[in-house]
Design brief:
Length: about 210
């Protein structure tokens, strides 16, 4: 195993768990994840941080997927801690191993920044949703201010290598509504407090698949 592979497999999942648990990020999770209901699929579920936010009274079944084996160890442990029966699989968002229209709800938090192909992943999320199903999202991405975007463009090449392929300049809402037939209901957007603005622009909401 090369040093780069070792870093990505063992250090990155721990760094991500730490960075993705800041109070500002946890506040946004708390606005979005408890809205999940019915048969739920979580893309990029590695780390398992969202497990504590699901409302057991609303979630009928839970499936999750992530390419990181180490990240999935954390997820399985967190699901077990909640007493949740979970179908957790290793896989990529660009080719989701579930049939069309399998889920009422997809949860996608802080993952579109890291997938290889965000548009293809969004088309896959649309495919696995039932008509009228909801994609609940909370993502960081391209800021609305030119001075911040300038820094995002400068930092992204190095950041991507250190942070498991995380992009800083991907748009959020427009990418979701542009990739598939979703109607977007943005619930919030802001710079996360106590976070550098180049890493801190967050948008959250729901995108509904036509019934
Ligand atoms: C910043 S972490 C966020 C983890 C989790 N979604 C959360 O909210 O804490 C990004 C996650 O995306 C996963 N990821 C990277 N590439 C992916 C892909 N092609 N498909 C699905 N997930 C991917 C990573 O393994 C990692 O778990």
């Amino acid at each position: 195993m090369t040093l780069g592979n070792w870093y990505n497999e063992h250090i990155v999942p721990r760094l991500i768990r730490c960075a993705c648990s800041s109070p500002a990020i946890m506040q946004v999770r708390d606005k979005v994840v408890p809205l999940a209901s019915g048969d739920v699929f979580e893309i990029g579920c590695g780390g398992g941080i969202n497990q504590q936010f699901y409302d057991p009274a609303r979630v009928k079944s839970y499936a999750g997927m992530d390419p990181s084996a180490k990240g999935l160890d954390f997820t399985r442990a967190a699901a077990a801690q909640q007493g949740r029966v979970a179908d957790i699989r290793e896989g990529m968002g660009e080719a989701i191993p579930f049939a069309d229209a399998s889920f009422d709800c997809v949860v996608c938090t802080f993952t579109l920044c890291s997938v290889d192909d965000a548009a293809q992943t969004l088309r896959e999320l649309h495919r696995v949703l039932r008509p009228g199903g909801r994609l609940l999202y909370a993502e960081h991405g391209k800021a609305p201010d030119a001075d911040v975007i300038k820094w995002q463009n400068r930092i992204e090449p190095v950041w991507k290598r250190l942070a498991g392929g995380c992009h800083l300049t991907r748009p959020v809402g427009t990418a979701i509504s542009g990739a598939a037939d979703f109607s977007l209901n943005q619930l919030g957007a802001r710079y996360a407090p106590k976070t550098p603005r180049w890493a801190g622009w967050i948008e959250w909401g729901e995108a509904i698949k036509a019934a």
